[in-house]
Specification:
Three copies of one chain form a homotrimer.
Chain A lengths: L1 H16 L19 E3 L2 E2 L5 E3 L2 E4 L2 E7 L7 H18 L7 E8 L5 H8 L9 E6 L10 E8 L1
Parallel strand pairs in A: 6-7
Antiparallel strand pairs in A: 1-4, 2-3, 4-5, 5-8, 6-8
Helix pairs in contact in A: 2-3
Chain lengths: 153, 153, 153
């Protein structure tokens, strides 16, 4: 059943990934009320905006949920997802040390300990808060873990 | 099993919906430290506050998780939920274009693609970040999808 | 099956709990760009920072996901989790009345109504927004409910 689920997910995600595009949109105006900036906008095949890789408003940065869409164990997937978060953070002018809050969605709660091993220490001496739950087949794209975060610049 | 789950959920939610009331509470003071404002407070049948439809603090707006509590497919439910989010945003002085972050909880990950089709383009050219997972029976009130968001004014 | 899952979770969490340490780190500088403050840092047995109990940035406070790791029903677990949130809020200089957003992850959606009964009224007359889903075995540490929050000071 779990295998079947994951196969279905892989199909869905592959399909979705096929319509992904990248773009950078917009800059905040400094002479007026603050506006959001967005980075790495994902669009569908008709160029319709779907979501952004990150959004910035004032000195806050919001990063999209990231997964690992390749064959690998929880360690590899966790490290990849953290790397994806870091890329977005740097692009938006933030860093891993400036993360305030992380949400972690595991495919399987049995991966909790191994996720922790790969996760610890990655955000410096003043780590963000974290909320972790498992969703048993609910992470898109066959990823063993999905994470998003809120940070500052 | 899934059907059974959804029947139970429908019962729970119907029960909960029976005790819902609406109200608008509070305004921020402009001459002191910022205070939160809240909109569309949901109370129980003894008038005890449960949660708000949105909260506003400074120029940030937080919108409660919204579901679709009627018979319908993922397209209808997604469109309804987005409409509910928009109502809250407008009431709080924000808009779909000012959303920074969306969280999406699907009932079934197989609805991912159809959710995307209904979702895309609804937040303008600079879309919010998004995190999507499925919770397989975990969305209250028999809804196929629940979404919340963080925005600005 | 559910029982089996919960037994596994208990083992995982007990193991994780064994490496938990507490610490308070850092103060914001008032004469420069705002920095985050963190409280109740959880570290592993080699003193590597894992996550914080709360983070503070400007006048925003982020509290980590809290669970109830003892035998008890949803009422006891909900009250405990709310109490844990309150402790973090007070430590960071905030309070239950200053919470803007709560995320609730139930072990079982059948606990929705009883969770509400224990939850209502705990945040004052201007309650935070709330997003609730169930994750059926996905809450770490055998807790029937996990909650996090965003607040202000």
């Amino acid at each position: 059943m779990k295998e079947q689920r994951r196969s279905i997910l892989k199909k869905i995600f592959t399909s979705a990934a096929g319509v992904v595009g990248l773009g950078v949109v917009a800059n905040a105006k400094s002479d007026a009320a603050p506006e959001k900036e967005v980075f790495n906008v994902v669009k569908d095949d008709q160029d319709v905006p779907l979501f952004s890789g990150s959004t910035k408003f004032g000195n806050l940065v919001f990063v999209a949920g990231k997964g690992a869409h390749f064959d690998g164990d929880i360690t590899a997937h966790t490290l990849h997802v953290l790397d994806e978060l870091e890329k977005e953070l740097v692009k938006a002018g933030s860093s891993m040390k400036k993360v305030l809050k992380v949400s972690v969605f595991l495919h399987d709660l049995n991966d909790y300990k191994a996720m922790n091993e790969a996760y610890k220490g990655k955000f410096g001496d003043k780590p963000p808060v974290r909320t972790t739950v498992a969703v048993y087949g609910g992470v898109p794209g066959d990823s063993l873990v999905e994470m998003d975060c809120i940070a500052y610049i």
